[in-house]
Amino acid sequence: MKDAEELEKIRTELVQLSRLSLLGKERDVQVFIRRLANRYKQLSPEFADNLTRLLREANSQSSVLRGAAVEAIPVDLDSRLQLARPEYPVHLDFEPHWEPVLQEALEQLVSERMREEELYKENLHPTRTALFTGPPGVGKTLAARWIAHRLERPLVLLDLAAVMSSFLGRTGNNVRNILDYAKGLPCVLLLDEFDSIAKRRDDDTEVGELKRLVTVLLQEIDNWPGKSLLIAATNHKELLDPAVWRRFEAIIEFGLPSLGDVRRTVDLYLGDLGKQWGAILATTLQGLSYADIERLIRRARREAVIQRTPFDVKLRKIIHDRVGNLRKTERTDLALNLIEAGLSQREAHEWTGVSRDTIRKHQDVRS
């Protein structure tokens, strides 16, 4: 009797699994298989392991197949532009560093993907969707590239300029096409400037088509499969539709770099001059984004070459231009760093406006 009941249960499960497969519900199929693996891991460990292995293989592809799939990016029918920019393999010019809390959150996304099998055995899945928020230039796109690099997966960056077709009615189709494409490829999909297409639906300035597009996006996020990681990034979180927030499994806030992070960034672009000017520039440029810091230093390098001027002369100009934006305590720290770099107390006073008496007093405290 018990064997007959077990056989009937297996038949029912096969019918249900077949129905889900024929309907093309890949995510539901994977969830169902995970439940089977979890149920049978005590009764039949080998059978459960085989199911888990199938799930793992379904969520990964060989490099050759992945590379070919990356090249098959959908295009806009009007402009013939690719709807996204694929990158595989993903290379990093340097190893980025973030504040400990942010670093931990990003490491968590990577660790979950690297230990998928353990999660599946417990009837869990890795984080499928994440929302990156923060001001421009603080490393949101870099973080997505870093995750793709660590996971050895393609990075697919949604090109909003191509997606927002001049024929508004086609925008929805473009978005659906690129999302369908990313669903079938183990990758990291980055929806940059997410607020451009996920605006509040009570915004009277937006036409009905864009509001309907928000609804489509929310549905896609809800049903995103475990095969790929969807990351949305926004510089203007206040513009997002309120319904967007609860759709994401992880929300990660990016802030402006700390003094230590500014110093590492400055040293990266200064090279040999970092020992002399690193502390000075880091103090001066604190409060700027990574992108702004890079832009200032690269422009100084270009000006030095074109004008045939020593690079350190241009660095002095950056400091001079930035001093007016510093608080009194920051100007004092800058004055002390300038002296340590070889300037006299008089020069430090002229550059920062900090009196020589104040400089001497703080020098005594430092020493």
Report the β-strand fraction as a percent range. Answer: 5-15%
Order of helices and strands: HHHHEHHEHEHHEHEHEHHHHHHH
Q: What gyration radius follows from the Cα positions, in whole Å?
A: 27 Å
CATH architecture of the largest domain: 3-Layer(aba) Sandwich
Q: What top-tier CATH class of the largest domain fits best?
A: Alpha Beta
Total number of distinct structural domains: 3
Task: Provide key terms for this protein.
alpha/beta; six-stranded mixed sheet; 18 helices; 59% helix; 7% strand; elongated
Q: What's this entry about, in short?
A:
With about 375 residues, the protein is an alpha/beta fold.
Folded structure, characterized:
The N and C termini lie far apart (87 Å). About 1% of the residues have low confidence. It is built from 18 helices and 6 strands. Helix 2 packs antiparallel against helix 3 and helix 12 packs across helix 13. A 6-stranded mixed beta sheet has the order 1-3-4-5-2-6. The chain is α/β, with parallel strands linked by helices and 367 residues long.
Topology:
Layout: H1 2-22, H2 26-40, H3 45-58, H4 63-71, E1 84-87, H5 100-114, H6 116-121, E2 129-133, H7 140-151, E3 155-158, H8 160-163, H9 168-183, E4 188-191, H10 208-222, E5 229-234, H11 242-245, E6 250-253, H12 259-270, H13 274-285, H14 290-306, H15 311-323, H16 328-340, H17 345-352, H18 356-366
Parallel strand pairs: 2-5, 2-6, 3-4, 4-5
Antiparallel strand pairs: 1-3
Helix pairs in contact: 2-3, 5-7, 9-10, 12-13, 12-14, 13-15, 13-16, 14-15, 16-17
